[in-house]
Amino acid sequence: MTEVKLGLKENWKQFSLLVIVNAFVGGMVGLERTILPEIAEKEFGLAVKTAILSFIIVFGITKAITNYFTGALANKYGRKKLLILGWIIAIPIPFVLMFAQSWNWIIAANVLLGINQGLAWSSTVVMKIDLVGEKDRGFAMGLNEFAGYLAVAIVAFFTGWIASEYGLRPYPFYIGIVLIILGLVFSIFFIKDTVHHVSKESTNSLIPPLKNIFWETTWTNKNLGTVSQAGLINNLNDGMVWGIFPLLLASKNFSIEQIGIIVALYPGVWGIGQLFTGKMADVYSKKQMLFIGMLIQAIALFLFYYADTLVHYGILASILGWGTAMVYPTFLASIAENTNPMDRAKSIGIFRLWRDLGYAIGAILTGVIADLYSINTSIIFISILTFISAIIIKIRMKNS
Fold this sequence. Notes:
This protein is mainly α. It has 17 helices and no strands. The chain has helices at 12-33, 36-42, 49-52, 54-77, 79-90, 93-99, 103-132, 137-166, 174-189, 195-202, 213-220, 222-251, 256-283, 286-303, 310-337, 341-372, 375-396.
């Protein structure tokens, strides 16, 4: 057997392949980002915001639970098998979205999408951390999330453009068929498992195993628990952006193409920004990175209340994207830094459980508040929660 080496340089070929695969994974989320709220209103006649956002609620809960089990099963069955399973489960998604006869079909597609994302994205995250060892974790996570969220942005833009030219269905969802084929081919024939890299790193680790991985990752460990709450709040506001912003922009008479541009800007800056912020997380204090990133998000969300023009929304979407870029790779690098290699996959799975429950909680909260009061009120409320999360990081987390 070839000698196992840790490091980005030593494993650059496998690492690059995993970056490409994660772009395909991210693209699957981009399929829905621009046009699904429009489909809900125009094709299925849904007017209540909570009902429209139900697809995000289902996606968030399913992905969160799948994240947990992916982390728990990664050491037992191997990362590659879970990655392939994620792609197999994705096969029906674009066809269901194309031919759905009722909103329940869309809900079912999002159950499958949540499982796909939980299995495939979690697997690529853990495999990249396995490969690089201690030195370049932040940079590795920056590259991983860059690929995923840039793909979200690109696909979100193109689905919006295709919808504006050829209609909401079926043509925008053809992209999903291509992504699934490529994801399966790469995962089956080119990706190698990283279980031996974990074994090698664990023999040299000075970090003691966690006594209770679930509760320590959830809250009792000051660093791990603080990261988990911040992850939940981050995806809570992302769930709001995903579901509410297309409706907000449509209510201001922006075209579907203009909505696609704004909706794509946010994950685009988020994705590209992580090329820089991931490396920053290896150099600067992770606590400060997380605090500043969440604070920027809170400010940007608050200012959305005052936005009115396409330029205003574009600038604020970009600022929000940069704030998210500061925290996303830093979350994962912090979890890896504070766990023994043998605990890492399970701890990351638990963190991602709480983080992605934020999608569901955010969609429920913003839907209920938007129905009772207004969309702008829901945005202000979420900005306040994001600010509180930043303060918790400042007070509770230790410098690392």
